[in-house]
Specification:
The protein is an alpha+beta fold and 614 residues long. It has two domains: 118 residues, Immunoglobulin-like, CATH 2.60.40; 315 residues, Purple Acid Phosphatase, chain A, domain 2 (4-Layer Sandwich), CATH 3.60.21.10. The chain contains ten helices and 32 strands. The strands form six sheets. Strands 21, 22, 23, 24, 25, 26, 28 and 29 form an eight-stranded mixed β-sheet that branches. Strands 11-12-15-14-13-16-17 form a seven-stranded antiparallel β-sheet. The chain has a seven-stranded mixed β-sheet with strand order 20-19-18-30-31-32-27, with no helix packed on it. Helix 7 links the parallel strand 22 and strand 23. Homodimer.
Length: 614
């Protein structure tokens, strides 16, 4: 049959679109735990098989992370045998909620918190049936057990279960995360514990380093299974989140170093965390060295190699290690969506907060909402998909503080010295005329550029420009409708840089307006601000390809993991750097030098029409 050129083009575009959609699904990842059909597990206990875990008590010296040795044996070993880590340790059918539609075995009603193949570090397991693993556990408010399964992931058979392992105090306060409050001189501290307010009073003991210490009470939140929206979050992915506490440390002296400890008062005794410290934020407009790190889509990874047989978030630990290594040169962090890719497996949020604790306990760790936190059909998300695994925003909104008026609407502004950050929620409607559009305009319009010259727009999805293949085949080179609705605001209010996640690669554009480069310079921008520079990138989750189409506005592309660092030296000089997660070295950079008069100067569509009256 003869097919014309136009028909061939249509066929090719259709193929590209399908491939892009499939790759977008894979690059945005399948939660490793979802590969296990735990609802199909059956009982096949063998008296000749065993699993032993040691030590049995962890954290005797206050540690919240410990390594456990798991030894196991099976009389009928196979290559698809695997070890699952369960918490709580009792995962029998008696723990199944009534609403769970289990009318025949399985005996299991909750997914493991991590898993690994039985032959991972024991190559002779298939021959002799004996193996061992070194697994890292974190304090997650309950005990642990280890189970040996045969028959792979799709129809697993439970062969043996270990003794229980627990932390000395599973309820201990853990994993503090700092965030800026609603005022510049306020810092919030959020952490997790196993203590409800009827059992113990949560607070933070804090004060200037070496000075008087005071106590500030904390508010306490939690949620139950009915709070989340669907499976797996409501079913096999459910795990009790414990209690989430937030304390507000107010009237801080700028740039002063403070120490703090998390505390819980149980009648006449106290439970304490270790001591941490942070530096108070500069006041809006303060002229000092200010260093900001921004990235999206980092996810979490396991130091022991478990969970990650599909290499979904293999850049995550590298990014975390680089940030910890350079922490003395970082003042504030923005993680702009797709936080840990728990996708409804709630245990993974604890794993993530433990991973970032060295960073988030020392500098403000600010979030934006992404599709893997918020999106779920019929819940008001702008995109009707299943990406959150039934979480529908509840986990991110509860476990992390942001200075939003309503955390269910995850948009907010925050000032850091010479910076104004306007953080959009790409998972809620941002089109002209909406509540969020009005917020974005107010955030951009209300900043005093004489005091805060550096205006940065942040969002998870690419509301600007991207050459990611999935966007290119749609012909939109960014989220459809986004530029048409928002670019006049970026231009009118002279946004310096717009930064996004979602596209799992790195790309930087020229200063751009209405698809046209407004400045031919590539490395050093000075004078009048002519257009906004758009940047997209991801720090750890699996990479996605670029289109082969060439666009004039795309200046730099890198198919790799990385993060952005902005350094404001003063009111006139800003350095932008893109660093790779693998080695922390700079692979792309540019400088901006401009004075206040350059910001005031008019350019295309940035000033109202003037009058001829004199």
């Amino acid at each position: 049959m003869f097919v014309g050129i136009r028909g061939l083009r249509m066929i090719m575009w259709t193929i590209l679109l399908v491939l892009a959609i499939l790759h977008r699904a894979s690059s945005h990842g399948i939660q490793p735990l979802s590969r296990i059909a735990i609802h199909k597990a059956t009982l096949a206990l063998d008296n000749l098989a065993y699993v032993k875990a040691s030590p049995t008590v962890l954290g005797l010296n206050g540690q919240n992370t410990e390594w456990v040795t798991v030894e196991y044996s099976s009389p009928n070993p196979s290559m698809d045998d695997w070890i699952g880590v369960f918490s709580p340790a009792n995962f029998s059918a008696s723990t199944c909620p009534a609403e769970n539609p289990r009318v025949y075995p399985p005996l299991l009603c909750s997914a493991p918190i991590k898993f690994q193949y039985a032959n991972y570090t024991s190559p002779d397991y298939k021959v002799n049936g004996k193996g061992s693993l070194k697994l890292q556990l974190i304090n997650q408010r309950s005990d642990f057990s280890f189970a040996l399964f045969s028959n792979g992931f799709l129809n697993p058979k439970l062969v043996a279960v270990s003794n229980t392992v627990s932390f000395a105090n599973p309820n201990a306060p853990v994993y503090p995360c700092l965030a800026q409050g609603k005022q510049w001189d306020e810092m919030t501290v959020t952490w997790t514990s196993g203590y409800g307010i009827d059992e113990a009073e949560p607070f933070v003991q804090w004060g200037p380093k070496g000075g008087h210490q005071q106590h500030s009470p904390a508010v306490t939140l939690t949620f139950d299974r009915s709070s989340v929206c669907g499976a797996p979050a409501r079913t096999i992915g459910w795990r009790d989140p414990g209690f989430i506490h937030t304390s507000f440390l107010k009237e801080l002296w700028l740039n002063r170093v403070y120490t703090y400890k998390l505390g819980h008062r149980l009648f006449s005794t106290y439970v304490w965390s270790q001591e941490y410290q942070f530096r108070a934020s500069p006041f809006p407009g303060q002229n000092s060295l200010q260093r900001v790190v921004i990235f999206g889509d980092m996810g979490k990874d396991e130091a022991d190699g478990s969970n990650e047989y599909n290499n979904f978030q293999r850049g995550s630990l590298n990014a975390t290690k680089q940030l910890i290594k350079d922490l003395k040169n970082i003042d504030i962090v923005f993680h702009i969506g797709d936080i840990c890719y728990a996708n409804g497996y709630i245990s993974q949020w604890d794993q993530f907060t433990a991973q970032i604790e060295p960073i988030a306990s020392a500098v403000p760790y600010m979030l934006a909402s992404g599709n893997h936190e918020r999106d779920w059909p019929g819940t008001g998300s702008f995109y009707e998909n299943n990406d959150s695994g039934g979480e529908c925003g509840v986990l991110a909104e509860t476990m992390f503080f942001v200075p939003a008026e309503n955390r269910a609407k995850y948009w907010y502004s925050t000032d850091y010295g010479m910076f104004r950050f306007c953080i959009a929620d790409s998972e809620h409607d941002w089109r002209e005329g909406t509540e969020q559009y009005k917020f974005i305009e107010h955030c951009l319009a209300s900043v005093d550029r004489q005091k805060q010259p550096w205006l940065v727009f942040l969002a998870h999805r690419v509301l600007g420009y991207s050459s990611d293949l999935s966007y290119a085949v749609e012909g939109s080179f960014g989220e459809p409708m986004a530029k048409e609705n928002l670019q006049k605001l970026w231009q009118k209010y002279k946004v310096d840089i717009a930064i996004y996640g979602h596209a799992h690669n790195y790309e930087r554009t020229c200063p751009i307006y209405e698809n046209q480069c407004t400045d031919n310079e590539k490395r050093y921008y000075k004078g009048t601000l002519k257009g906004t520079i758009h940047v997209a990138g991801g720090a750890g989750a699996s990479l996605s390809p670029f289109t082969t189409l060439k666009t004039k506005w795309s200046l730099f592309r890198d198919y790799d993991y990385g993060f952005i660092k902005l350094t404001a030296f003063d009111h006139s000089n800003l350095l932008f750097e893109y660093k790779k997660s693998s080695d922390g070295k700079v692979y792309d950079s540019f400088r901006i030098s401009r004075d206040y008069r350059d910001i005031l100067a008019c350019t295309v569509d940035s000033c109202p029409l003037t009058t001829l009256a004199s």
